[in-house]
Each structure stands twice: as structure tokens, then as C-alpha cells.
Amino acid sequence: MERLILSVAKDLFLEKGFSGVSTTDIAAKAGCNQALVHYYFRTKSNLFKIVFKDVLSQLKEKIFTSYNSKASFEEKITEIIDVHFSMLQENPYLPMFLMNEISNNKDISLIIQEVFLSSIYPVMDSLQKDLQTEIAEGRVREISVFNLLLDIVSLNLFIFIAEPVMKNILGYNEKERQEVIEERKNEAKKVILLRLKAN
Amino acid sequence: MERLILSVAKDLFLEKGFSGVSTTDIAAKAGCNQALVHYYFRTKSNLFKIVFKDVLSQLKEKIFTSYNSKASFEEKITEIIDVHFSMLQENPYLPMFLMNEISNNKDISLIIQEVFLSSIYPVMDSLQKDLQTEIAEGRVREISVFNLLLDIVSLNLFIFIAEPVMKNILGYNEKERQEVIEERKNEAKKVILLRLKAN
DNA sequence: ATTATCTATAGATCTATAGATAATGC
DNA sequence: ATTATCTATAGATCTATAGATAATGC
Question: Looking at beta carbons, which residues of chain A come within 8 Å of B164?
């Protein structure tokens, strides 16, 4: 039951955020009474922190396995976009959830620093080196790692953030949704490669 | 006082969203008591709808004046990005606010349809025509209006959505923030033009 | 005995309204 | 008279805890 509560809490928090979910909601969905949530996790904040940490370290693992050093630079970039996209397809609520909680919940930055920052630097270093080589040898246009990563993340994430808006405005069904996402993935790859490729 | 309440409500809702603000908060910041908020606007939902409609039509005006038909295609695209960026710099909370409320508040889609949809089609048509001419004459690579607009909006909006995250992780000050935003604006222009320009 | 689960409830909000009082417009 | 503002309060949550009861492990 403890694990069930945690799992239910994770689903609900991801979908509706910290303030959108009450411990009563969690208990109802887990099929126990509300006091039990507090028995296992003391406070709602505490439960949320555990969930958040969990979500973040899962995310970390998925992201940082994508950059394997076998392939060509172009293939690596394409691979990053592919992995990033499929991760987002599996967790469509994740971007909104993270953005929201980070801007609302001030003391969450500690968790982010703890779980995330240590892992991001090696990957950036590796990407940095590859990028410098490519630029030096004239295959890639001048660009900073910072801008390259933000370009990629912007183009990948945004469709998932905008998805509820588009659903409302355009009113498409699930099949069309998948097509739109697939189309955006290919467009993202095209845009990034055209930005990079020196001709 | 009625206008003051409305203005305070707008600021607070934009910053913290519908559920993050109580009528007590609004009254406190407006310097009156909480009953007065209900006297003028009956319910919190009603007040919110008025604010939302207001925000949306202001946004609409700002967005749809950007596409004037004088300049060259390349200049028009650059102009769109410039106007979009400066609008966002003036209203940094806007993207998050819109995304959030649209996904939380189901009956808000009506307001969006009412205020927004009617205005977007003429602009898209105009852009569509220009784009087709450019493509037909071999100056621009094949791309749909849908993808072009999403590319632009992704690259422009994302930095503002990610801003709280970055502030937390990178911990920069206001001056550095402005520099980052300026850098991203130039990068966005570069990316879009490289995507479009047939060589 | 200890751990898991429940019932009941205190105390904090928060929205919305009723009814009193003050301010304003004719 | 009408409109603007206030005080007070009902009724709905929601979090957290105390204390009772059921289930489990030795």
C-alpha cells in the first residue's frame, strides 16, 4: 500500500502539479483513507519531494544514456533528438510538470542541483569536444554547446508543452496527434542539421 | 477601486495562475477587503475570465501587427521574431500562464476560439502565399506554414518558459539574463533563416 | 508487540453571501 | 436613493494528528 500510494501520487502530481492534488485525492485513488497517506509520508510536501526526486532521476537516466560515442557527429545529434522525443512521448506531462514546480516551489532547486547537475557536465564536455572538432575541420558552422542544446530542447519540448493548446484550438484526435508529433520530430532534425551543416 | 482590483488580479493571475491566487490575496494587494472583490465580480471564476479575455486580446493585437507586407520575405521573418521576442520580454509570465490555464481550465477554449481564432487565419493565409511564392521561385526550401510557425514559436517561447529553470540551475543575475535572451533571439533568427534559405 | 489501517476531529484556508454602515449623486 | 465599502459568518475544502481497531510477526 505504501508503494501504491507513492505510485498514485506520482501519477497525480505529474498530471496536476503539487497544488492541484490533495492528499484526499491520492487516498481516494489509492483506495485507502486519507490518514494513511500521512502515516507513511508525514506531510504532503514530503511525499511530493520523494516523487519529484524519483521523477528527476528517472529522467536523468533516460537523457544521459542517449549520447553514445560510436557514431558520426550527425548520427549522434539525430540520436539525441530521437531519444529525447520518445522519452517525451512516454511522459507527455513531464515538461509542464517540471517547469511549473520549479517556478512555484522555491526549495526544489536544491533537489535539482543534487540529482541533476552532477550528471550534466560530463555529457556537455563530451559534446563540447565533438563540436569543436567538427567546427575546426569545417564540417559544422560555429555554434556554442549552450545554443545547440537549447535549440534542440526548444524544438523538441515545445510541441509537448503546446499540445493542450493545440488540442483545444485544432481539436484533433489521437492518431492525428501522433502524426503531428512525428512530423515535428523530423522537422526538428532537419532544422538542427541545417543549422549545423557547413556547406 | 473596481479597476484597481481588476489590475491587481491580472498581475497576480499572470504570475501564479488561477488556483495560486485567492480573492483574499487580491483584496489584500488592492488594499480593500475580500468581500469587495465579490461585490464587483461576483465569483473568482468570473473575474478570472475577464482577466483572461483581456490578456488574450492584448496579446492578439501585439502579435498580429507584426506582419506588415512591405519588406522582403527574409525581413518579414526577422521582423516576426523581433516583435515576438520583445513582446515576450515585456510579458515574461505570459507563455506559462497561457499553457497552464489552457490545460487546467477546460472551458477556456471557448474564449480562445472567440478571441483568437478569427484573427489568426488572415495572417496565416498571407504568410502561406508569400511562402509559396518563395518556394516556387527557389529561394526558400520546402516547408509548411504550420512547421515554420511552430519552429519560430518553439525557438522564441522556450527560453521564457525555461527561464525559471535556468535561473535556478545557472543562477545568473538580471544583466546576464538579458544577455542570454538577446543571444537566443539572434540564434533563433539564424536557425530559421538557415532552415529557409535554399543555397 | 509492532505495524497497518481506520474514524473523528481540530485548525487553517478559502469562496461567497447577508446585512450593516459610509459615501455619493440627485 | 443608490452605490461603495465593511464586518461577520456559513459552508466547503484541505492538512495533519490523536486515538481506536485490525492485521502481522515473533
Answer: 99, 102-103
